[in-house]
Write a structure and sequence with these properties.
With 361 residues, the chain is of the alpha+beta class. It has helices at residues 27-44, 51-61, 107-120, 133-143, 221-241, 267-270, 278-282, 307-312, 326-329, 338-341; strands at residues 4-11, 17-19, 65-71, 75-77, 83-86, 95-100, 102-104, 124-130, 150-153, 163-168, 172-176, 182-183, 186-187, 193-199, 205-212, 250-256, 276-277, 292-294, 296-298, 301-305, 313-319, 354-360. Helix 1 (27-44) runs antiparallel to helix 2 (51-61).
Length: 361
């Protein structure tokens, strides 16, 4: 009989291929392009088109996106099939979508990503930003030393291939998606809140809620915070709808929340007294809990646990050795693995550390 349980979460920034827009050395460069993609998407939803504006935006973005025309034609083409103009007069003239162009990772990048997961050695790990279920299973079978017998990913609506997923050594008993949850006409979750019930070796159950909340990137901070606040509130509402007792049931809310612990946008989760951050439980200084660096060190990745898991928590930490230049961010306290540091920023396993926690069963 096992006597411990290890849970982790890791934003892997995809496993085999990533949207080209995410492959810049500086995140802000990708954010600028994503902002223009949003402008183009807004233009394509209009009833009457400004052809020059659409063509100008597309010309700037064509190295990073494709326009998939499903019915009717958006563009005019010459004999070489080069885009030379806009044919559609408005949204009603065609249907289609923006797809992000991708680039395959090098073998060393894939191995570094796997090294984080292998190093953490979790029994259950939520892997954030994964392309699709076949990719998750291929990664699991080819690069994970001790293959996980259970995996789950439900493709959601984000076209960049950044879905939430789960790998587990224990049986998945009940699985629910919340990608269709709405507030009015708007979808609540940017990706999904993947709800999974897991049967533990002692015949008890673990209730997981895997999330990747709205980013801090392109778009206004006010709108981003408002969307993230709604997402955090929806997670709590789901837990209450399921009648989970946070003083008795083993519940964990985990993933990339895209905001720091003191952010008001996370308050529906962080102000629930029966839910605690495992890093706060076991690491005294807040500055030592960081999981991500963008200008400054920040904690964006979390495992929030209910009281039975809080009481059973032995230890918790962050695996940061897959982050390029982590020695600089940590003022020499942590060194990246040589396979990461010696091969440049694109060989980084991720720009996030993996959060883990170990519990008594």
């Amino acid at each position: 009989m096992r006597d411990t349980l290890k849970i982790a979460t890791f934003n892997a920034e995809n496993l085999f291929r990533r949207a080209k827009v995410f492959n810049f050395d500086e995140r802000r460069d990708g954010d600028e392009i994503l902002a223009k993609v949003d402008l183009l998407r807004a233009e394509l939803e209009k009833k009457a088109y400004d052809g020059k504006k659409i063509l100008d935006l597309y010309s700037e973005l064509k190295d990073f996106i494709d326009i998939n025309e499903v019915r009717g034609k958006l563009f005019k083409h010459n004999r070489k099939f080069e885009v030379v103009g806009v044919k559609a007069k408005g949204r009603d003239d065609w249907s289609g979508f923006i797809a992000f162009k991708t680039e395959d990772f090098t073998e060393i990048t894939r191995k570094n990503t796997a090294k984080v997961i292998n190093s953490v050695g979790a029994d259950i790990i939520s892997v954030i930003e994964v392309e699709d279920k076949p990719t998750l299973d291929m990664f699991n079978s080819q690069l994970i030393v001790k293959r996980y017998p259970y995996s789950m990913l439900i493709d959601a609506f984000d076209p960049r291939g950044i879905d939430v997923s789960l790998l587990s050594r224990f049986e998945l008993c009940d699985i629910r998606t919340h990608m269709f949850d709405k507030a009015g006409r708007s979808r609540i979750f940017s990706r999904d809140c993947l709800e999974v019930t897991i049967k533990l070796p002692n015949s008890d159950f673990l209730y997981l809620f895997v999330n990747h909340f709205k980013s801090q990137g392109y778009g206004s901070q006010e709108q981003n915070d408002a969307k993230r606040l709604r997402q955090a509130q929806q997670v709590i509402d789901i837990i209450r709808e399921r009648s989970h007792d946070l003083t008795r049931d083993k519940v964990a809310v985990l993933g990339d929340f895209n905001a720091t612990p003191d952010s008001s946008s996370l308050s529906p989760l962080t102000h629930v007294s029966e839910l605690k951050d495992v890093l706060a439980l076991k690491i005294a200084r807040p500055e030592d809990r960081w999981t991500y660096h963008y200008d400054v060190n920040q904690q964006l990745d979390f495992i929030l646990v209910s009281e039975p898991l809080q009481n059973a928590c032995r230890q918790a930490g962050v695996e940061r050795r897959g982050i390029f230049d982590v020695a600089r961010y940590s003022t020499g306290e942590v060194n990246a693995w040589p396979q990461v540091q010696d091969n440049g920023v694109t060989a980084s396993a991720s720009d996030h550390g993996a959060v883990w926690a170990e519990f008594d069963l």
